[in-house]
Specification:
It is a single-pass membrane protein. The protein is rod-shaped and about 180 Å long. It is α+β, with helices and mostly antiparallel strands. The protein starts with a helix and ends with a helix. The chain folds into four domains: 53 residues, no CATH class; 108 residues, Band 7 domain (Tetrahydropterin Synthase, Chain A, 2-Layer Sandwich), CATH 3.30.479; 60 residues; 41 residues, no CATH class. The longest helix is centred in the last third of the chain and has 73 residues.
C-alpha cells in the first residue's frame, strides 16, 4: 500500500515530464530551444521535437512572409516639392538565431520597430537623391525607385536576421498645407495653356480667313475681267453687225430703229410725249414722208 502511494506521484511526474519534453514544430514556424536564455538548438523542420523539461523552453517565430505598414514619411525630391509617402514592406525571418540575438526578448514587435527605422531612412534617401523629382516618383520610373529602396533596406536588415522581400509605395500625395497652393498653380498653368491654345487658334483662323478673303477677291476680279472681256467682244460683234446692216441698207435700218423707238416710247394707255411737230422723231408718222417714200419707189 505504501509503495502504491509513492508510485502514483512518481508516475504522474514522469508523464508530465515526458509531455513537457515533447513539442510540435508547425510548418509555418521556426523554433528555438533555450536554456537559461542561451540557444541550445534550432528546430526549422516541421514535426516532433524534444527538450529537457522544466529547464529548457521553446520560443517560436513565424516563418511566413510578413507585412509591415510603415508610418507616413515626408520626402523632398530634387525639385523641392514635398511629398507624403505611405509605404509597406514584406519581410521574413531568414536566420532565426541571428534574429534572436539581435532583438532578444522583444520579439516581433522590437524587430518591426527596428525594421521601420531602416525603411524610413531608405525611402528618404532614395526619393530625395539627385535627379529624382516628384514627376519621376509619380511616373513609370517608380518601380525602379522601389527596387532601389528594397536593395538598401535588405542590406541593412541582414544583421537583424531579416530578409526584406519587397518594398512598395502605396500612396504618394502632397501635404495638406500645400494642396491648395498646388491646385491653384495647376489651375493657373492650365488656364495659361488654354489661353495660348486660344491665341494660336485665333491666329490660325485669321490666316485662314485672310486667305479666303483674298481668294474671293481674286476669283471675283478674275470673273469680272473675263466678263468684261466677253461683254466687250459681244458689244464689238453687235456693233459690227449693226454697222454691217446699216451699210447694206441705211434707209431700212433707220426705219427699223424708228419703229422700235415708237414701240418703246408709246407703250401704256397714258403715254404722253411733248415734242416739236417738226422733230425728226416723227418723220415716219407724217404723211408727206410716206409720199416721198412712194415717189422714191416710183422713180
Amino acid at each position: 500500500m505504501k509503495a502504491t502511494k509513492f508510485l502514483i506521484p512518481i508516475g504522474v511526474i514522469a508523464v508530465v515530464g515526458v509531455l513537457s519534453s515533447v513539442f510540435i514544430v508547425d510548418e509555418r514556424e521556426k523554433a528555438l530551444v533555450l536554456q537559461f536564455g542561451q540557444i541550445k538548438s534550432v528546430k526549422e523542420d516541421p514535426g516532433l521535437a524534444f527538450k529537457i523539461p522544466f529547464i529548457q523552453e521553446v520560443v517560436r517565430y513565424d516563418d511566413r512572409t510578413l507585412s509591415l505598414d510603415t508610418d507616413i514619411v515626408e520626402v523632398t525630391p530634387s525639385d523641392d516639392r514635398r511629398l507624403v509617402v505611405d509605404a509597406f514592406a514584406r519581410y521574413r525571418i531568414s536566420d532565426v538565431v541571428q534574429f534572436r540575438q539581435a532583438v532578444g526578448v522583444g520579439g516581433m514587435r522590437a524587430a518591426e520597430d527596428r525594421l521601420e527605422g531602416i525603411l524610413n531612412p531608405a525611402i528618404r534617401a532614395v526619393l530625395g537623391s539627385d535627379g529624382v523629382t516628384s514627376n519621376t516618383i509619380l511616373s513609370a520610373d517608380r518601380a525602379e525607385l522601389m527596387a532601389r529602396i528594397t536593395s538598401q533596406a535588405r542590406q541593412r536588415a541582414l544583421p537583424l536576421g531579416l530578409e526584406v522581400v519587397d518594398v512598395r509605395l502605396k500612396q504618394t500625395n502632397l501635404p495638406e498645407q500645400n494642396l491648395d497652393a498646388t491646385f491653384a498653380r495647376m489651375r493657373a498653368e492650365r488656364e495659361r495653356e488654354a489661353a495660348d491654345e486660344i491665341a494660336r487658334g485665333e491666329e490660325a483662323a485669321q490666316r485662314v480667313r485672310a486667305l479666303a478673303d483674298r481668294t474671293v477677291v481674286e476669283l471675283i476680279s478674275e470673273a469680272t475681267r473675263e466678263a468684261d472681256i466677253v461683254r466687250g467682244q459681244a458689244d464689238a460683234e453687235r456693233n459690227a453687225i449693226f454697222a454691217s446692216a446699216f451699210g447694206a441698207d441705211p434707209e431700212f435700218f433707220e426705219f427699223t430703229r424708228s419703229m422700235t423707238a415708237y414701240e418703246r416710247s408709246l407703250q401704256g394707255g397714258n403715254s404722253s410725249i411733248v415734242m416739236s411737230p417738226d422733230s425728226e422723231f416723227f418723220n415716219y408718222l407724217r404723211s408727206d414722208q410716206g409720199s416721198r417714200s412712194d415717189e422714191g419707189e416710183t422713180r
